[in-house]
Design goal:
The chain has 17 helices and no strands. By secondary structure, the protein is mainly α. The protein has one domain.
Amino acid sequence: MSAAMKTANSAKPPGARLLAPSRWRAWEIVAWLAIAAAPFVLRQHAALINEVAIFALLALSLDLILGYAGIVSLGHAAYFGAGAYGAALFAKHVMPDPLVGLAVGTAAGALLGALTSPAIVRGTDLSRLMVTMGIALVLLELANKFEHITGGVDGMQGLVIGPLLGRFEFDLAGQVAAVYSLVVLFVGFVLARRVVHSPFGASLQALRDNRLRASAIGLAVPARLAAVYTFGATLAGAAGALLTQTTGFVSLDVLEFHRSADPLLAVVIGGAGWLWGALAGAIALRVLHDVLSGFTAQYWTFWIGLILVVLMLVGRERLFRPWRWFGR
């Protein structure tokens, strides 16, 4: 950076310098326009795009609590499953409207996050791993036990989801579902971006880097961690509701361990503490899954594991340095 640019930046008021990272960049707008065009340009892959959008929203919710707040979790499937079952039960017993069902599933994830966050934000990283995993396992067993409500291992089949906005039916090709999920993903991304670029988001990163110093200057550590954890659980609940509505089916699979491990892998691949990293990691992992399983249906996990090993040995910064430079 030249001396003139440095002088110009230093001449800006402090508020303008703090707000600079929150401004949308041209490449972000172009990226979202490309994402929005994907269901129309790649119509034959609309079902995959819908799956990627739901998975990206789940990875985004995990990145909020892991990358920005430093809360490790192996039980994020609990909130994903709460949203999925909440939307399914609402559609079956109350009304099939997808937008209202999405709100119900999102609220179910938020409620569960608010109830469990006080126990999770306290203690060490190891205790958080155990508590989060335990919550997901408890919900999995409860869903299996109360099969007269959840359908047990057979799941809740034949869910009727009404047309979106009363006009757009969910088609077999998945184009309407893909557009619907991408819109919800964009709204979730905008909300998450607003949070991380706010003073609250700056305080979260301070807590992540040094919790003792943050508490010494008067920050309410448990309250802030509980708030961001609840927000992450809210987005995860929305992702679960989207899965139920776009597939018309929900089963115990939404509470299985891989629903917690997969978004963690996506965050590792894309980079924690960067919202676009969560999206990029989710897209890369799902596309790799689809491509590799097409070549070798039995051993695709071996190749994904090999890619992860290379990524860790070589270093993400070396592999993605041009992209991160372009993003900055």
